[in-house]
Amino acid sequence: MGGLLESFLQHCLESVNAIQQKREAAKVYGGCNGYPRAMTLIDLANPTKFLSLTARLLPYLVTGTAIALAISLYLAATAPDDYQQGATVKIMFIHVPNAWLSMFVWAVMSASALGTLVWRHPLADVAAKAAAPIGASFTFLALVTGSLWGRPMWGTYWEWDARLTSVLILFMMYLGLIALWRAVEDPSRAARAAAVLTLVGALNLPIIKFSVDWWNTLHQPASVFRIGGSTLDRAFLIPLLVMAVSFTLLFVTLHVAAMRNEILRRRVRGLQIMQVRATSSDVSVASPASQQV
After folding, report:
1. Domain extents in the chain
2. How would you label 152-167 residue by residue, b for 16+ Cβ within 10 Å and e otherwise?
3. Per-residue pLDDT tens for 63-90?
4. Contact 146/88 with Cβ under 8 angstroms?
5. Is the pLDDT reported for residue 17 higher than 80?
6. Distance between CA atoms of residues 206 and 202, nearest Å
7. Of 2, 5, 131, 165, which sits with the fewest C-beta atoms within 10 Å of its C-beta?
């Protein structure tokens, strides 16, 4: 009787081990002819896997971005002059994509802020911190090119109307976030504070978008994405859209590279902290021994 019970228990253990082995294999292999399963978004929460994937993707992103920028610059250079604005209309091909991306980057940071506060995603704060300097650069270029474009059109480089002022506030918020991350030494505290400030700053995005509709401003209303269709001629619309795609690819490339650098920087900082703690513990252990001698 005891032998039968022992053999039954042994059989149960072998069955459980077999099931566990199948589950472990299912995590690595897709269960289809032994081929590895595709990396999921959950896998990308692991910084090591993120670094591995982006190391393979980054060369293709750089190449695609360079080709897209070359094509868009050629289309912008060969676009005709406007019958009213002349050659100054070509500033639009740089100004508009930068203005779009200045808001798009903050929207990306807002999504990352939710990931930090709600889901505690390990790469959320990395994504937001890496995007802030890029977004600040796009916003700065939008302000500069807008001023250069406004001088011959409006007769002034700057006017305190709703659109320009709200974009300037967006630029100042970018700088404030960058300063916050640098000022707070504790990464977790800095991440939470920056996430809250990012979500509060997101209220400025609809103000920027609809400011030309809500108030009487010098800035022209929407002319590309509107209910009645674009008011731009195809000779200007196509180069503008291609340039917008090129700048978006540029942002993705720079963002991925900046995220990789931030992950590696945090790892180096962690190793330095561990080394300092190990050194201080060795000194504290050696001090009583030296006193006894």
Report:
1. 44-274
2. eeeeeeeeebbbbbbb
3. 999 999 999 999 999 999 988 888 999 9
4. no
5. no
6. 8
7. 2
